[in-house]
Write a structure and sequence with these properties.
Distance between the termini: 29 Å
Enzyme class: transferase
CATH class of the largest domain: Alpha Beta
Subcellular location: Cytoplasm
Strand order of the largest sheet: 2-1-3-4
Main location: cytoplasm
CATH architecture of the largest domain: 3-Layer(aba) Sandwich
Helix content: 40-55%
Largest sheet: 4 strands, parallel
Number of strands: 12
Strand content: 5-15%
Organism: Acinetobacter brisouii CIP 110357
Function: Catalyzes the condensation of iminoaspartate with dihydroxyacetone phosphate to form quinolinate.
Number of helices: 19
Bound molecules: 1,3-dihydroxyacetonephosphate, iron/sulfur cluster
Length: 400
Amino acid sequence: MKEHLASYPYEKPSLDYMQTHIEFATEAQQSNACTLHEAWAKVPAALNATEIQQYQEEIRELLKQHNAVMVAHYYVEPELQDLALATGGMVGDSLEMAKFCKNHPADTLLVVGVRFMGETAKILSPQKTVLMPDLEATCSLDLGCPADEFKQFCDAHPDRTVVVYANTSAEVKAHADWVVTSSIAIEIVEYLHSQGKKIIWGPDRHLGQYIQNKTGADMLLWQGSCIVHNEFKGIELTHLKQQHPEAIVLVHPESPAEVVAQADVVGSTSKLLNAAVQRPEHEFIVATDQGIVHEMQKQAPHKTFIAAPTAGNGATCKSCAFCPWMAMNGLAACAEVLRNQSQQVQLDAALIEEARAPIQRMLDFSEAYKNYHQQQQLGAGLAQFQQWLATQHEAKYSAL
Ligand code: 13P
Ligand code: SF4
């Protein structure tokens, strides 16, 4: 353990502790991941229309040649999202990406997002080749939650069930009982709470707090945060809402509580997209990475999307809500890694085994939850679902 962390008592990490920790991690610890500044420096220059077309044609051919499929997150550049969809791949939230990667028959997955997404794909399909445009594209939540520190935190509370957000390394997942994404976190924690479990939650403190408020579960929170969502400002959002009184506010739950409190819809990227498309209103304030506006605008071309503010009145940037690690992905790198079969996600077989169980648990739960709702019609109560789950999966979950 690093010297300046050695005295940490492992009760509840303080914000100050975590801020020092994240800075330390981003500056020195993770040599195989880009720091924030390095990530911005690696963002590829914009391409002109001819270059975009040339790369898209080349990638289309390379995907066929390698029996590969492209799987992208909503936060990456529009031309990457469009190509993934046009070539039979997908664009989705992190849970949908994991399911698609696991179920698709391709030999090679080109995962266009950040490293935890590529690692999850490899863990669920170790036999497939998993390529990423840049393996150093990481996430501030992953950087702020080193596996050795998190393990000590968990070891100090052996009575608690460990639930970790998907935005973590494979090593952190290997310490978890459950992995969750923002689209299924509340349902899983609600289920565990109903079973009388006390929880350790990591790493995003805002999402953890939101789930705790929603479920009433006893949760000990790791104090990580997303550098993009953490920047949304409550007071500025209040002012913006006053200027657009008809607008619906869409918020990702990695945002601070004062921003979440003003939301009409809180949820994963897919949930926010669906709300933007399905709701009858015409104006939406969007508090998540602005990459998602591309798909919102495509699916709801006559609606207006306004970026939620990230900075005070004096700042030049009113919304800088772009993830630098997502922005590292580009068409040129996609073509290069397919051509050379480089930037492959490699994980130790034992680690894959350990990290798979809590991810698979989430997938099983999510599937059971979906099936239940399909059978019972949407809106069925959680208590009924829990009863049903207990009969279906007694042996599987009762040990946790
Ligand atoms: P989603 O699972 O909602 O896509 O979120 C992933 C993420 O990294 C949000 O910042
Ligand atoms: Fe991580 Fe935030 Fe980027 Fe999502 S937006 S990948 S949580 S740093």
